[in-house]
Design a protein that fits this description.
- The protein is built from three helices and two strands; from the N terminus they run H-H-E-E-H.
- It is mainly alpha-helical.
- The protein has one domain.
- A two-stranded antiparallel ribbon has the order 1-2.
- The longest helix is centred in the last third of the chain and has 16 residues, at 54-69.
- It is extended, with a radius of gyration of 16 Å.
- It starts with a helix and ends with a helix.
- It comes from Nonlabens ulvanivorans.
- This is Probable oxidoreductase.
Amino acid sequence: MVKEAYGQHWSPADKGANILFNLALSEEFKNDSGKYFDNDKGSFAMAHPDATNQKKINILLNLTKEIIRGN
């Protein structure tokens, strides 16, 4: 999908899957629940401000529900 959208991809999908798997199950990250992991930096960082903007979150949720319903 990334290649179709942007004309290229930066790394294989399994790399991202492995990172998520490790973050979810590794003892190393057991106290990091809820933090944003920046895969490009390879460390925890501040998420984009939109990630905590409740108005934008609600818009996204409502649009997602409309798409799922087929409206």
